[in-house]
Amino acid sequence: MKIDIDFILLVFTAIAALWTVVGRSLLKATIGLAVTSTLISILMFRLNSPLAAMFELSVCTGLITAVFVSTISLTKPLTHKEILQISKDRIKRYWYLPVMLVVIGIALMLVKVKQDFVIAPPAAVLDDVRTVLWSFRRLDLLGQVIILLAGAIGIVILFGEKKNDKQ
Amino acid sequence: MINNSWQLFTTFGFFVVLLFACGAYCIIITRSMIRAIIGIELLIKAVTLLLAAVGYATGNSEFVQSLVITIIVIEVAVAATAAGIALCVFRRTDSLDVRSLRSLKG
Asked: Residue B32 pairs with which residues in a beta bridge?
């Protein structure tokens, strides 16, 4: 039986995502998210998207994990008792969600989909992502610059301590 | 690499839906602001993975990469700003519970 490496990577990605969601500790959830990002970046490399994979690896795995860890370190962790209480409440309130997911999954599997679709050829042959970004998607670049500036200003304002806090 | 385009779509599609369900589940069940942001991150990751798979299948990898890069930039800004807001709320209410945001109403 031949098992494709992509399938294995996808299974590990799903396991990491589930671990992120189910885990009780916020720090472990952050690590799970970083592992998910790493696996997705490997998949992107294999899907012939090396630049996107590099961005995913450096930004999502590195920067966002650092942001989350710093935020968690600046906040007060819950006690073990509180975590257990929240878990119990969660199971009581949302016991039907996994059941619903399984039912929807089975329903979708029963739906017959035609498998004779044809993939359209690319509208234009674009051989380099830099050409696409700088020649065809300039507005996206402008948007990215504005979003990054807005994000940076937001971080400075929100993460910055008040003068009263220092005293 | 999976050669058949339909097989690629179904395989990646199934796991993308699973990732999306994980993210949505995380947002629905949690009361912690940080965990809600993690759920949003998972949703965005599902979308980027689907885009990469579609780009590979249709031969538009270069175009899709530019879209994925744009999404990643937006993702970072959203995550950082949301984390900052969570921190501000924690400083004010001493809690990361989303219910504490109710006190911010008008």
From this structure: B97
B52 and A30 within 8 Å at the Cβ level: the answer is: no
Rounded CA separation A47/A40 (Å): 10
Q: Kindly list the distances between the CA atom of residue B42 and the CA atoms of A92, A108, A125, B64, in Å, as whole numbers in the listed order.
A: 24, 22, 32, 19
pTM above 0.90, yes or no: no
- The number of domains in chain A is 2
Please check whether residues A15 and A62 belong to one and the same domain: yes
Residue A105 within a domain? no
- Would you write out chain B's pLDDT as a tens digit for each of its 106 residues? 555 777 787 888 889 999 999 899 888 888 888 999 999 999 999 999 999 998 888 888 888 888 899 999 999 989 988 988 888 888 888 888 887 777 766 5
Coil, strand or helix: which one is B47? Answer: helix
| Residue A111 falls inside a structural domain | no
Q: Which of B:56-85 have CB within 8 Å of A? A: 56-70, 72-81, 83-85
Nearest to A55 among B25, B72, B88 (CB): B72
Buried-exposed string B23-36: b where 16+ CB fall within 10 A, e elsewhere: bbbbbebbebbbbb
- The DSSP element (H or E) to which A15 belongs, if any, is helix A5-22
ipTM, 2 decimals? 0.90
Closest Cβ–Cβ partner in A49, A121, A127 for B55: A49
| Domain range enclosing A167 | 125-167
In a domain, A118, yes or no: no
CATH of domain B5-104: 1.10.287.3510
* Interface contact flag, A86 B31, Cβ < 8 Å: yes
Return all residues near A156 (Cβ < 8 A) that are at least 6 apart. none
Taking an 8 Å cut-off on Cβ atoms, the answer to whether A154 and B84 are in contact is yes
